[in-house]
Amino acid sequence: xxxxxxxxxxxxxxxxxxxxxxxxxxxxxxxxxxxxxxxxxxxxxxxxxxxxxxxxxxxxxxxxxxxxxxxxxxxxxxxxxxxxxxxxxxxxxxxxxxxxxxxxxxxxxxxxxxxxxxxxxxxxxxxxxxxxxxxxxxxxxxxxxxxxxxxxxxxxxxxxxxxxxxxxxxxxxxxxxxxxxxxxxxxxxxxxxxxxxxxxxxxxxxxxxxx
Length: 211
Fold this sequence. Notes:
The protein has helices at about 130-135, 190-195, and strands at about 5, 10-15, 20-30, 30-35, 40-45, 50, 55-60, 60-65, 70-75, 80-85, 90-95, 105-110, 115-120, 125-130, 145-150, 155-165, 170-180, 185-190, 195-200, 205-210.
């Protein structure tokens, strides 16, 4: 089975006007690319097209595509390419491809510092390990005390409000988070973040749209 590379979640800018296009590389599945064109995901093989964008070839982990007869190199998780005239509006969508094990593990930032998330629809709050909270420079002096009920029993946690979380080009402010005493391999992206979005999943692609 070909390896399914985890994709960084991407917030896309939507453009006004028929000639404007926003194109991003959201993931790679074998030799196919997950392209997001004006907010709509397409799974495209080399030589094929989706949303008017043709995948020409792979350059390592970058994809070379043809957009309106222009060759453009897209980087996995990079800034969307913007072609054509017309104003743009703030990003409202995140599109991500599942990684190995079927988990969605986008990269992003908390208060401007890079982290790796894992989408967890069963978590009430964003969950951060204590060591990761220290790395992020989070101030816990005024944190509230709470209890998290896990499969291993109740765990004491500290509850804080994060100034901002960014995934791709979409940023959300004032997000509740719990700081757990044990180390976690990811920051769990729970419902204090996810509830701000409408969620749609189509096989290995998840799309979040701001409400």
